[in-house]
Write a structure and sequence with these properties.
By secondary structure, this protein is α+β, with helices and mostly antiparallel strands. It folds into 2 domains: 4-115, Diaminopimelate Epimerase, Chain A, domain 1, CATH 3.10.310.10; 120-263, Diaminopimelate Epimerase, Chain A, domain 1, CATH 3.10.310. Helices cover 24% and strands 39% of the residues. Strand 7 and strand 8 form a beta hairpin. The longest helix has 15 residues, at 71-85. The two termini are 19 Å apart.
Length: 275
């Protein structure tokens, strides 16, 4: 019987955050077993980790499929590793790259800082842009003219849609089946919808239909991808906060710092709470 911990990452004032399943093991089981556990847990991701060398072999599963990297599950994993082994930096060996997570005591709970995979961005296909805007009932007049609709990556692939107003973000809705088909067709983990206020603080919502979840309350991989794009496209390299989940009743806070250098990793910090 697996010991499945349920930990909410990027909690705000001890509330909200994004729940993840965390399973610490001596050895990872077959992928089919991990997929079945993730489907049973039902969170947007469940992370599995086992000792390997000086770090931990780590894999992430959404209810319907494996994903290459998940930020909030990595923060939750950091909390679990901290509780089991003490504060410190833990190297994580993923399917395609290596990252790390640092566990830090935070009162009776734990906070953690992940260091993402390398980041990148590229022009979004015109058909994807048209269909994504149609999915939400928007057009180019609704887009923040200071940014671009862009494919961004920080360990997982996202479509970034920057909106002109907070009200557009708050009123987001879409057809789940149509959204799932679109995300699967274009290999998107989420569509990252953002609005930036005057001081650079980002408010975000992340539809996640392609992997079986209508909306993600806190998305570390999307935050890393966003920060890498803002830095490398010359928009901003300044640290910033992301508020996410408020519109779905799970307020979350992510603190984001892009490291220097094009394509470099991003450090993301968040508090956790046990569920």
């Amino acid at each position: 019987m697996m010991d499945i911990q349920r930990i909410s990452a990027f909690a705000l004032n001890g509330q909200g955050g994004n729940p993840a399943g965390v399973v610490l093991l001596d050895e990872l089981p077959d992928a089919a077993i991990m997929q079945a556990v993730a489907a049973d847990v039902g969170y947007s991701e469940t992370v599995f980790a086992a000792p390997q060398g000086n770090g931990f072999r780590t894999r992430y599963f959404a209810p319907q499929a494996e994903v290459p990297f998940c930020g909030h599950a990595t923060i939750a994993l950091g909390a679990a590793l901290g509780a089991a082994n003490g504060a410190g930096v833990y190297p994580l060996i993923l399917n395609d790259t290596d990252v790390s997570v640092e566990a830090m005591p935070n009162g009776d709970e734990w906070s953690a800082t992940l260091q993402s995979p390398r980041t990148g961005y590229r022009t979004a296909d015109k058909d994807l842009v048209v269909r994504a805007l149609d999915l939400f009932g928007w057009d180019m007049d609704d887009i923040d003219s200071n940014l671009e609709i862009t494919r961004v990556n920080g360990g997982a692939e996202h479509l970034l849609i920057p909106l002109k107003t907070h009200a557009l973000l708050q009123g987001m809705s879409y057809d789940f089946d149509v959204g799932a088909k679109l995300m699967q067709e274009f290999g998107l983990v989420t569509i990252n919808l953002i609005w930036r206020d005057s001081d650079g603080t980002v408010h975000s919502r992340n539809p996640f239909a392609g992997h079986g979840v209508y909306e993600d309350p806190a998305t570390g991989a999307a935050a890393a991808a966003l920060a890498g794009y803002l830095r490398d496209a010359g928009h901003s390299g300044t640290p910033f906060d992301i508020y996410q989940g408020a519109d779905m009743g799970a307020p979350s806070l992510l603190h984001v710092v892009a490291m220097e250098g094009a394509g470099s990793a991003v450090r993301i910090t968040g508090a956790t709470r046990k569920i």
